[in-house]
Amino acid sequence: MREIITIQVGQAGNSIGEKFWELACDEHGIDHCGNFHGESDLQLERINVYFTEVRNQRYVPRSIFIDLDQTSINKIQNSNNKNLFNPEFLINGKMSASNNFAKGYFTEGVEILPESMDIIRKIAEECDLVHGFQFLHSISGGAGGGLGSLLIDYIRQEYSDRIIKSYSIFPALSMSQVVVREGQECSERGHSVEPYNSVLTMNHLIENTDETFCFDNITLFDILSKTLRLSSANFTDINQILAQVMIGITACFRFPGQLNMDLRKLAVNMIPFPTLHFLTTSFSPLYARQIFRYQNINEHMLIKQMFNINNQMLAFNPQHGKYLTATGIFRGRTLSLKLLHDLISKENNNQQFVQWIPNNCKIAHCDIPPKGLLRSVTGIANNTGIIKQFDYILQPFTKLFQRRAFLHWFIGEGMEEIGIELIEEPNGDVSIRNRSWSCSVFVQSILYNRLNGLSDSTVYHLQSRRSIPSIFNLSIITQLVNNPSATYESILDLTKLCTIQVSFKYGWGYDFGQREITSTPCWLSILINEPLRLIDTRLQQLQPQQATTSS
Ligand SMILES: Nc1nc2c(ncn2[C@@H]2O[C@H](COP(=O)(O)OP(=O)(O)OP(=O)(O)O)[C@@H](O)[C@H]2O)c(=O)[nH]1
Ligand SMILES: [Mg+2]
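Above are the sequence and the magnesium ion SMILES. Below is the predicted complex in structure-token form.
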């Protein structure tokens, strides 16, 4: 049997997990004590994907709930399902991540990492063959983002050949568009450091997950209030929809059907390049309860809704991007696969799919519909329009980061700000600043050296948090370029004055015991664009005196 291990981290992760397991138990006929009361053997056939059989027909979810504070774990311990989960698999820290990625990744999170990894290893050892890991978390939380990233990194290291997928709650649109709904339980108001946590977590998701399914709460709330017409939606309702989508994604893995789909097949078909693994999801049918029984929910409607913007679980417009790939996971009694294929290909022509991937719209099918429905489809898409979502995170991040706002909270927890910053002055000069709190960088500018009476090869040791003002001087270069008596060759020679070379960790040249910058482990050459364009324009007006060259 190929098993999936589910890891829930932080408040959002744990609450969504609770709903997910309610639904998984329902589908497999498991009661809240773990006993099987199902009606069909099919419910047991592949129950091992999510559950471990501990005694005759007694099952335990293969699930770990982790948080840095006690609140969300206490909630599970006092819920109706308290006897369902193995108490050993509920792990909490003593402090909180306090909305701080760095606490989750560097300090508080590290304290509970060994215990968490021991339990994950123990669960994995009890499996026949671990197929993969699924993470549930919010990327903007201190625990969900920070500790979630730490666990993902460790699991990737130890189980490098297993699929890691995450169900990740993204912050809702830009901070300015976040709505607080008075009088309703679901108040989605981002906290101030949300953009930092999200950007930092994204780095780890890019590197170490195979598939990340992206959701945002405002979009889910809109589905509940506008499409399903619920008058007072709250997180429980949002988590219900999320759970429905998650359970739909593995339906063809857990129940028999005409076309199977497992996590690896899904990844192979959906992800053309390793980093482009951020997927959006949709679900159909979605109708308000009042009108549901009057709707004809045929396969054609399902497919239409699967691509409809109102059925997407993330704020993005599929029409603003192109589909790289898409998969429809159908459940229940449907037309023959051939007809489903024809219908989806027809819809495929109405949508913008890239032309260079053949058969980029796949289907999977299992016979068992979700409870209460005759048939359904869970849509998964790899659409370039998702870039908008990344912008929503990056814009507020940049605004905060430019001002260094809130950074001390992260640096105080052991994070290091590294790298250099180039600052363009109003007069066009460029200054360079070392952003690191503890590491030096090494800088060479021939123009700066000449202006300060030094040899061309001088390399500066720029200490942490220090700057060199006007390392590049635009007005001098402009004067030299426009000098009426300059020759083609002398102007061409100015290009080397428009370059700044930087190395990290070690210096180079005479003072630092290394001959070339290329023998240092990490270096870069920065070309200043504006003066290079001036030089190019001037060269086009002049004739070379010797061999023909170009800048
Ligand atoms: N869908 C959903 N989102 C939630 C839920 N609880 C919190 N969130 C969202 O998750 C984000 C904050 O993440 P949390 O999970 O609360 O934070 P955490 O991971 O526990 O980490 P800390 O911030 O350190 O407490 C916010 O955008 C919340 O709106 C939930 O039950 N369901
Ligand atoms: Mg929390």
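Residues 10-12, 15-16, 96-99, 138, 140-144, 169, 171, 188, 217, 235, 238-239 surround guanosine-5'-triphosphate (ligand 1) (CB under 6 Å).
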